[in-house]
TrEMBL record, chains A, B:
<dbReference type="Pfam" id="PF02882">
    <property type="entry name" value="THF_DHG_CYH_C"/>
</dbReference>
<dbReference type="GO" id="GO:0006164">
    <property type="term" value="P:purine nucleotide biosynthetic process"/>
</dbReference>
<keyword id="KW-0560">Oxidoreductase</keyword>
<comment type="subunit">
    <text>Homodimer.</text>
</comment>
<dbReference type="InterPro" id="IPR036291">
    <property type="entry name" value="NAD(P)-bd_dom_sf"/>
</dbReference>
<keyword id="KW-0486">Methionine biosynthesis</keyword>
<comment type="function">
    <text>Catalyzes the oxidation of 5,10-methylenetetrahydrofolate to 5,10-methenyltetrahydrofolate and then the hydrolysis of 5,10-methenyltetrahydrofolate to 10-formyltetrahydrofolate.</text>
</comment>
<keyword id="KW-0521">NADP</keyword>
<dbReference type="InterPro" id="IPR020867">
    <property type="entry name" value="THF_DH/CycHdrlase_CS"/>
</dbReference>
<feature type="domain" description="Tetrahydrofolate dehydrogenase/cyclohydrolase catalytic">
    <location>
        <begin position="6"/>
        <end position="121"/>
    </location>
</feature>
<dbReference type="InterPro" id="IPR020631">
    <property type="entry name" value="THF_DH/CycHdrlase_NAD-bd_dom"/>
</dbReference>
<dbReference type="GO" id="GO:0005829">
    <property type="term" value="C:cytosol"/>
</dbReference>
<dbReference type="GO" id="GO:0004488">
    <property type="term" value="F:methylenetetrahydrofolate dehydrogenase (NADP+) activity"/>
</dbReference>
<protein>
    <recommendedName>
        <fullName>Bifunctional protein FolD</fullName>
        <ecNumber>1.5.1.5</ecNumber>
        <ecNumber>3.5.4.9</ecNumber>
    </recommendedName>
</protein>
<feature type="binding site">
    <location>
        <begin position="166"/>
        <end position="168"/>
    </location>
    <ligand>
        <name>NADP(+)</name>
    </ligand>
</feature>
<feature type="domain" description="Tetrahydrofolate dehydrogenase/cyclohydrolase NAD(P)-binding">
    <location>
        <begin position="140"/>
        <end position="277"/>
    </location>
</feature>
<keyword id="KW-0554">One-carbon metabolism</keyword>
């Protein structure tokens, strides 16, 4: 392969190390630690595994994790009421509602119960607008993590033609808006796109966010392009890695690329929320 | 020219005629008429002309216009307070804050004081999310008007490659999200885009929303494409009309294309708000 690796593991580790120092510095000023509350509904094993991983990372950097587990049969009203309590609880800096909630829970209503100032996972309408219009607010964690990765590796975005493959609520759509706010030319492709190959092969930067392993053939990638693969189905990427890595200038591995950056972004935003809410520099 | 005209004047007129009948039908059920409140800050003559035009159209279809004029030196807090009153006033169905407000007024704060259920001009974060995720809510009036024009002329959007030139808060950005929600492949181009010509010449549908007369040369348009020109600078379009009209299959004139559709969309959404708020079919 000729591409250089956008190393999410190493970058996330460096961010977490910086956060350890930052949290310790802030705590000395306030006597408090940032608090991230996670609401999880039901007992989906994958969700509990993710939450456990987040809790461990929180502890590692000095963020206090709080976990609220609600029964699988909870109504929308019950979940909304728990989220509201956290929104009003002055000790809480960030609120994360673990996705997916059981089918009877209206996720949109639950998300909108999150105080936008505590929406460190970037799921509210207010956060969407903040991303679109580059205003103060928080980013959806996965696209936010990808932007951080681009930043750390000095990937130029302005004026470059970027393709986002996928248009989900907390990945594809905010991803495109964040790139647009950084002056990229942005094309959204998706399941109804005609001739995906044609679009991909023209792009300077490809963000794959479809969750369909192998959807993007390696030889579609333009020579010298940048590839960020947020594929998440069965831990396999959307992009055929080996062939793509022979053509790209930069590429994320799966796993070890986008995945660890998502948690890093979440924790970084939790600390940022703590700083803002306490008026700290 | 070979293109057929996307006639905004005729389409808007037909929509307004339908609204006359609809408002009369609704009023018979409720004894009430839909109310659109407009807040205008200062005495910019162009803004007052626009508002006057909107007031006249309201009266024509049977919507009751209310106009709140605030002094040019109003603070953000004063404007927000007026908008809040309208949000809480049960007799008001729609709220429009005339753009632009004087520089000392924070438009974002003012917009967010609009009850999302009355945001018939589609300027709040909640409306942006509703457009992005195809949820119940209102569309920004100009992109909403363009979508209505496409609908009325049966312009197919799904799977087609659409370019939006421009990325403003209430025009370019929501336009792209609305097209994406209708399954178009969407490219956002803007002032930082490299080789705009290349992008435009590939598009099946071009929405010009830059406000730069003549930015898009007519011979960039692909044969058989659809062109909607939301150009608004000095009443001149972004697209070189004569040459474009020889190549396109459908094109909007300027004036008489997108402009009248903006008001039609605003009034249609005001009536829709009245229907929803009173639980009417």
């Amino acid at each position: 392969m000729s591409a250089q690796i956008l190393d999410g593991n190493a970058t996330a580790k460096a961010i977490l190390n910086d956060l350890i120092a930052e949290v310790s510095r802030l705590s000395e000023q306030t006597g408090k630690r940032p608090v991230l509350a996670t609401v999880i509904v039901g007992d989906d094993p994958a969700s509990h595994t993710y939450v456990k991983m987040k809790v461990n990372r929180c502890r590692k950097v000095g963020i206090e994790p709080r976990q609220i587990t609600l029964p699988a049969e909870s109504s929308t009203e019950q979940v909304v009421s728990e989220v509201r309590k956290l929104s009003e609880d002055d000790s809480v800096d960030g609120i994360l509602v673990q996705h997916p909630a059981p089918a009877q829970v209206d996720e949109k209503q639950v998300f909108e119960a999150i105080d936008p100032d505590k929406d460190v996972d970037g799921v509210t309408a207010g956060s969407l607008a903040a991303m679109a219009f580059k205003e103060q607010g928080f980013r959806s964690a996965t696209p936010g993590g990808i932007m951080r990765l681009f930043e750390e590796y000095g990937i130029e975005l302005a004026g470059r033609h970027t393709i986002v493959v996928g248009r989900s609520r907390i990945l594809g759509i905010p991803m495109g808006l964040l790139l647009l706010a950084e002056n990229a030319t942005v094309t959204y492709c998706h399941s109804k796109t005609v001739d995906l190959k044609d679009h991909v092969s023209q792009a300077d930067i490809v963000v794959a966010a479809a969750g369909q392993p192998g959807l993007i053939a390696g030889d579609w990638i333009k020579t010298g392009a940048v590839v960020a693969d947020a594929g998440y189905a069965d831990n396999a990427g959307d992009v055929e890695f080996d062939v793509a890595a022979d053509r790209a200038a930069w590429i994320t591995p799966v796993p070890g690329g986008v995945g660890p950056m998502t948690i890093a972004c979440l924790l970084e935003q939790t600390v940022e929320s703590h700083r803002r809410r306490h008026g700290l520099d």
